[in-house]
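Suppose a colleague, Dr. K., hands you the sequence of a protein chain of 295 amino acids and asks what its three-dimensional shape might be. Before reaching for any lab equipment, you can write down a predicted structure in token form. Begin with the sequence itself:
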Amino acid sequence: MVFIVFLLAYMVRRRLDSLDLLSGDEVWRRWFRNGSRVRAGHEAGIVIGLALVFLPAFLLGLAEYLLVASGWRMAAYPLEFLVLVALMGTPGWRQVLRAYAEAWQRGDMQSAWRHVKDLLPADERGAAVSPEAMHLSLSKALMVSVFQRFFLVAFWYVVGGIGLAVLARGLVALADQWPQAPARPRFTRMSDLAGWIPARLLSLTFGIAGDLAGWLRETRRTLTGVTKKAGEVLMISANGSLTGYALDPARFSRIHPDEWTAFGGRSLRAVRDLLNRSMLVWICTLALLVISGVV
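The predicted structure, expressed as tokens, is then:
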């Protein structure tokens, strides 16, 4: 049933994303308002934020345990389904990426930047950034967002149940949306720890879902880079797994200068297709684990 619950939640979540409905980030943002007031000089404290994440994670984990112990495991699945639908999802990205690709096609890089600047990391939003740097930054932000809102949740749900899935997703939300900015770097380090193993599993999956030969050339840099963050690992792996210089705009512009205006949309489609194929690999692997009795 774990497989069925996750598969149904994933399908529903993809549909909601296409309709731009039910943003999990907004749910977390409203929940974190309970910790918006702190005493002066304590803005970097993390106790309240961790409590706001541990509380729902603990309650859901406890409810799951009690239902299993009492022989009512089936009663937990509808709750897990609803929670997974709320935890996952990247609503809003589809429309932004479409507008970005159209602006790139027109050669209007300033308009393309305006469409995506809010999705880029704060230190990479410079209006004077080159088109190549802007596109690579956007590609990394896209992969990290999908990783944190789908693959990270899937991994911890299968490994430790709904409680750990909420905890891992909550740490990501704290790093992105906690009202007190001075505390966010500490939350970021915690979310990086939660994503260390899943990011490297997804890196391996890129090799299966993409160009295995190209991925093998880059694999040493990802698997041996213990301190590399999820974004770096995924970008290196995706660059090796994708063909046609999809994540190498400088080289693409030299080799195919006449097709430069189509690069933005083509590259993003390649990245999204790779992520979709990778999720299919994860779903098939989960099905095999269920059939073999491991899960």
